[in-house]
Amino acid sequence: MRVDPNYVINLTAALDQSASQEDTLTSELSSGLRVASLSDDPVAVAQSTLLGGSIAQDDTFVQTASGESSLLQVTDSTLGDVVTQVTSAISAAVAGNNGTALNASDLASVAQSLSGIRDQVLSLANTSYQGQYLFAGSQGSTPPFTLDTATNPATATYNGDNSIQYVQTPSGQNIQVNLPGSTVFGAAGSGVLGALNQLISDFSSGAASTTLTADTGALTTALGQLSSQRSVLDSSLSRLQATSTYVQTEESQLTVAQSTLVSADPATVASQLSMAETQHQALLSVINTLGSSDLFSLMK
User: Fold this and answer.
1) Sign of the alpha-carbon torsion through 230, 233, 237, 239
2) Contact predicate 146/242, CB 8 Å
């Protein structure tokens, strides 16, 4: 029997197409992916690439925010200890200057107590975290403060810089993540360390009550300045944590969107595969009906 060549060609093409569709659907079902290459869906691949970039940016921020949050928490805890120490110094200064005449031994005892507090504050000012000094600005490898007790009053020198560092959010906002030591503890005789050194010197020399009162007032003012800087830090920590939470949610949503673009729907693919198999079997049945598996032989 002679078969129309065009019919044979069409039947062969349909069989090849059916087999190819079966292979594609089988691959989608096993991999779970509708788009495995650019040729599968160029638009979806382009959109997925853009989403992937945003996801990577969000993930980088979340990782950075985690590390910076830990740093800010350590810094805040350190400043809390400083506040405790300075508050104790103010109490000691007020008690030592209560209007009752103190002898040299009493004054020396107060000065010694204040010196101990000053040394604790200096140690806290030189706190490091993961090998980096908290209050050195951008000079993280350098201890920010040194103390020269050869002068009277003693001199605390700031060795860091005034660099303020920021973390940028995916939306482009900057969040401050450090406090230069000079803005917190003072420099060149100012701030908490300067006020403490002055108090120690004046108690040691038996200065007048009015002088000690002025010194205590200066220390109280310096404590207020320190607390103000700590508030800046606390605000940064809150913003960083809130932004990180938001970005994590956004990242999850983008990941779902990306997955939807390239993923296959198992139920739909299974249904399509079943239909493709049925079509393929039907084509094979036609071939069997014609009585030959080699269609080209029927064209002769």
Assistant:
1) positive
2) no
